[in-house]
Amino acid sequence: MKATIADLADKARELRVAIVRTLHKSQSGHTGGSLSAIDMVTALYFSKMRHDPANPDWAERDRFVLSKGHAAPAQYVA
User: Fold this and answer.
1) Does the pLDDT of residue 20 top 60, yes or no?
2) 39-68, pLDDT tens digit by residue?
3) Using an 8 Å Cβ cutoff, are 44 and 63 in contact?
4) With b meaning 16 or more CB within 10 Å and e meaning fewer, what string describes 59-75?
5) What does the pLDDT read at residue 1?
6) Among 17, 22, 28, 71, whose CB has the most other CB atoms within 10 angstroms?
7) List of residues 6+ apart from 1 with CB closer than 8 A
8) Which residues contact 11 (CB under 8 A, 6 or more apart)?
């Protein structure tokens, strides 16, 4: 079942909180880069990409390359 826009908005909100908590706990990182990318990351991970965290060696999975290093916490929380 594909996520609705409302579902994705709720998930993005949860992930924003997780980003802030993660960066605060580590006392390191760039909040702005992660928060600016979280809507895109949420849509990809929770609606578009074919992936299975329980099976990281799945040959048919989609790959996501994040070249905006300051946004890495957004990918980590997703």
Assistant:
1) yes
2) 999 999 999 999 998 999 999 999 999 998
3) no
4) eeeeeeeeeeeebebbb
5) 57
6) 71
7) none
8) 3, 42, 46
